[in-house]
Amino acid sequence: NYSTSSQHSILYYYKYMASLLLQRSVLSPRSSLRHQPTVFGRKCERNGLNFGASRLDLLQNSQRYRRYSNERDGKQSSENDSQRMKRAGGNLKYLLGATALLGGGFYFASNELEEQKEEDKEKRGTSHDSNYEKNEGGLDTSDTKTIFAKKSTAELVFALAILKLCSLESLIKYGPQLLDVATKFHVSAPIYWIIKKTFFRQFCAGEDFESTLGMVDRLYATGLSSILDYSIESGGGTEEQFQDHVKVVSQTIDFSAQQKEKAPFSCIKLTGFTSFSLLERMTSLLNYQKIHPEFNLPWKDAILQGKSVLQSDAQNLSFGSPSPLSPSELIELDSLLSKVNQLCKHASDKDVSLLVDAEQTYYQSAIDFLTIFLCKKYNSEKPIVHNTYQMYLKEGVEKLKRDIENSTKEGYLLGVKLVRGAYLDSESQRAKDFGYSNPILSSVEETHDSYNQGVKLLIENVDHVSFMIATHNENSVKLALELLNSKGITPSHKHIHFGQLYGMCDQLSYAAAAQGLHVSKYVPFGPVEYVIPYLIRRMHENKGFVGRTQQERELLYKEISRRIFGNRSSSPILIVSEEKLTNKS
């Protein structure tokens, strides 16, 4: 029975306390707390609520903070491992407290969120928001008031909490192990519930196709398109699961055909249609043939000639050569080809572009072979099938250059999704375990250079290649814009698209859209227990790229602080410097 103004005051209280606890988690849990009068307490009283005229304040003023920082920096060098673990536990305690407060804030904000849903419904079918029309001032991710204009404060605080959790190394390292143990002893339900309310909510849009459509509408209302991605890797599943995957992807294609501006692409994962073992076997044989060109692969020749792999000739064996695909593996390959051809034909008939996801290198040669074959078959007149190129691989630039040249010679449009790569840890560990050379470039600088070379190659061949520059790196987007401007290519060219993952790097997405670029969010969905591999990769990515995710957290801090404290530079959220955040991350 609260009045509207009282509801807003309670919401303000929860938003403030959550941000305060998040700020507290950055500092040492041993720093003292003080009660001091605040503008907040007086604001509550004016709105008819008496929460008291005081609050818990982390720091009395910036001078006290500087003294504390100097003392802490002096002690850090002598800190032992047990002290670090104790401090990490304290940080986690305050983050959990912030999550609890967020829950209360969401409850009191229910009316506000319901109003937002109603607005979203009214905007379905409307054009992009006018706030994000082309900005002639250049790519700018620092104007948080503009880029986060369509985000509620509760959403910003929640995103900040999750990104902060992703920076906790112990959680990223031991979380998956804890889940495995809980699953083994059949007590995983509580953990899945926590994942669903935290990481899943941040990085996925829903558990099924229907539940994602509201998010597609919300993104479109803010000037962004969506790429619906059924993020299930069923490589250990059954044929029934594979067929269910095909049905869901067909739904996304149908939706994209009806709502092309909202969802210009659909997405497929070959690991959702067949076993991991088949892709690994095919990759092993294809890689062996690269080294030994005389080695014959009848199933490969049958695919290229448009014949059934079940009718391919027997493979000629020689001493020391790997064993051929077994009859059961050929049947599985035939089933995989049937599924992907069915989806590609459906997409071609509906004039919908498909993005084929990349996987680890021990699956990727098979995926590359099949995807390029599908490009040749379906991309003769328009770009339907797009292969993914991982530029953190040593072979990334040469492979992209070779495929561009081949597509030009053979007369089909090459479809490209350009990414850096998401399997850094697993690829490096496998190379170490099996004793072969790491396929990943040795430094992040080399990866940036490789990716930017790929951007240049694509823009130079824009008439022959349809591509998506899928990156969270601001410098790569700026480079693309500079190249487009220097060559007189319109940013809205039909072959040029940009993309970021849902739940990450919103500041770059909105800033790029403001430049007139086609920007889409990769919107994953699927049952929580089946999208765990995707969520683990997102957690690792947010842990690994400290510089970028730190910048994202700082922008979120900045906007939350602006909304709660106005432009006051003395607000607790703003006094944590970039240097201190770097040390703690």
Essential attributes:
585 residues; alpha/beta; eight-stranded parallel β-barrel; two-stranded antiparallel ribbon; 24 helices; 10 strands; disordered C terminus
Outline of the structure:
The chain has 585 residues and is of the alpha/beta class. It is built from 24 helices and 10 strands.
3D architecture notes:
- The protein has 585 residues and is α/β, with parallel strands linked by helices.
- 58% of the residues lie in helices and 9% in strands.
- It is built from 24 helices and ten strands.
- An eight-stranded parallel barrel has the order 3-4-5-6-7-8-9-10, surrounded by seven helices.
- Helix 1 packs antiparallel against helix 4 (81-108), helix 17 packs parallel to helix 19 (444-460) and helix 19 (444-460) runs parallel beside helix 20.
- The model is unreliable at 1-11, 24-69, 75-79, 91-96, 98-137 and 568-585 (pLDDT under 50).
Cα distance spanning the termini: 43 Å
Number of strands: 10
Alpha plus pi helix count: 24
Walk across the major sheet and give the strand order: 3-4-5-6-7-8-9-10
Range of strand content = 5-15%
Query: What integer value in Å does the Rg equal?
Result: 26 Å
What is the average per-residue confidence, as pLDDT, rounded to a whole number? 78
Which regions contain 5 or more consecutive residues with pLDDT less than 50?
A: 1-11, 24-69, 75-79, 91-96, 98-137, 568-585
Assign a percent range to the helix content.
Answer: 55-70%
Structural class: alpha/beta
In one word, what is the shape?
globular
Largest sheet entry: 8 strands, parallel, barrel
